[in-house]
Each structure stands twice: as C-alpha cells, then as structure tokens.
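Predict structure. Chain length: 333.
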Amino acid sequence: MVSTLPVSLEDIRAAAHRIAGRVIGTPMVQSASLGELAGVPVHLKLEHQQTTGSFKLRGATNAVLSLSPAERLRGVVAASTGNHGRALAYAAKAEGALATICMSRLVPENKVAEIRRLGADVRIVGLSQDEAQQEVDRLVREEGLVMVPPFDHPAVVAGQGTLGLEIIDTVPEAATVLVPLSGGGLAAGVAAAVKGISPTTKVIGLTMEKGAAMKASLDAGRPVQVEEVPSLADSLGGGIGLDNRMTFAMCRDLLDEVILLTEAEIAAGMRHAYACERQVVEGAGAVGIAALLAGKIRGGGPIVAILSGANVDMERHLRVINGTQPLYGEEGP
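Prediction complete.
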C-alpha cells in the first residue's frame, strides 16, 4: 500500500536532503509525567521550536526549493490559517521571492502581524479558508502567481514527512505516533514516512471536536465542506478542498484512527504543556498531550506526540493557563 502512495518514502527522503541546512531537526524529549499517566514511555517531538514556530516550514521550504527560478520570480501565493503563511513567507524571502498570503478574518492577529513582518503581501478575505482560497485562485488566474497550497501538494506533504523520518530515527521502537490533523499535509507525510519504515507503528490523527473537515470527510467517504468555528486549536481549522488530490486519500489509507478533542481537553493540554513540560504551545500543538490526559489513547508504547506549533497569542495563552479563557462552544461563545 505504501509503495503506491502519491508521496513515497523516497520522495520524503529526497525532501530531507533538499531542506537540510534550512530547516532544523527539532529535539525529542521524554515526558515523565505523561509516561506515568499512560503507563508507557511518552516522548514529545518539540516541533514548535522550529524556526518559524511550527512544522509548516518543512513543507513550505521543500515546495519553494522545488520551483524553477522563473516560477520563483513570479511570486508564490497561498491560503493559510497562519502557520503555513508564516512559513511560506520565510521560505520565499530566503530565496528572494515574494509571497502573498490570503487569510480569513478568523486568523489571530499575532499570526497576521508576523507574516507581515516577514515581508509578505497579506490579504484578509472572508470568514473561512475556503473564501481565502478563492482570492488565491484569482491571483493565480489573473496575476500569474504560483500557488503553494498549505497541505494538498506533493512537495508540501513530502516536506512535512521529514518530521516522520526524524521521529523513527530517534525513537525507532515507537508503537504510536500522535499527529495533529487538519488538511492532512502533516498527518499524510508523517504517516507515509513512519509506516514506510515501521509498518506496524500506529499513526493517530487528532483534531478538535467541531469544524474538523478531514474527520467529516473521512466519515463521509469523500471530501466535504464543514462550517469553520472558532477554536483554541485555530490552526486545525479550514477545509480540505472538495477537489482534494492526495491528503484525503493518504489519511484514509494510512491513519489508524482519528480522535476528536473538546475545547476543555485542548485547554488542559496547553496547561499541562506549560506547567509540567515547560513548553508554550498553541492549541493545535497541544492535542497530543490533550488526548493522553483525556485517556483517549489506548495501546502500547512508546508513544510519540508531536507538539506542532507555538504561534499563540500570549495574552490568550495566559488566560488558558489561568483558566479564564472562554471555551468556544462550551463555557463561552
């Protein structure tokens, strides 16, 4: 099955070679507190310490480096919930290209400001990633920009998959890998790498309870649209595209399970990361810890949880830590 994937283990290894020196290999640490809770060794992959604060730099860098000089000269464009936009802006700037990033009004201002700081042209469009994507399509059609999607693109998936190579290289005996799940670029890439080397290792996708487009699509057996709703895990929002070419099929074929988390569980994960692991992570980056705390992960170990991002509004983060942040759809709006 793995050999017929649209993004292969060989593609991911080639991406690792291509981005070497531009993307850091992030640390892996063992968590005594989570290991005691789970009854098996638990390791945390600190990908939130990546240069731009999230895993997205891997895929964006691989995609930009895969373009021809003429394509880079035209400029790149993408829709983003924040982290991909920041990564693409950084990767494009490093190669002397201009990036245009289209985002909805749901993207937190701290992420928007950082993308602007990196020199990108920022377009705020609508209240969903699908609406932002419409502006991307217009810029590609009318101005000739080159689209670098946040997930459904072979070079992006291969770049994210390099994270899976690092996981298995560091913890070769890993029995379960917990990966945040949104559009599926990270989950597809990591699963392809992990299962390409260690077929018996389980890969579990984790996402928020409401507005989870990939989970709804997997349940329906085809890509579907869902309403985007505010969440502490805002990076996991957005659709997967009704014409999804690869991440839907890869997640369908490679993920062993998808687990949903409530806002309260995500908040607990963020608090635990800060209080017990001394790590500041955004909601999407805390879902692995959240699932372990909630007792939703069953099976053997060792377990590896990916802490995928740290691009959080610090005022909101402090409210979460102090227990004063309203939880969307539960205690708050």
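Summary: Residues 154-170 form the longest helix (17 residues).
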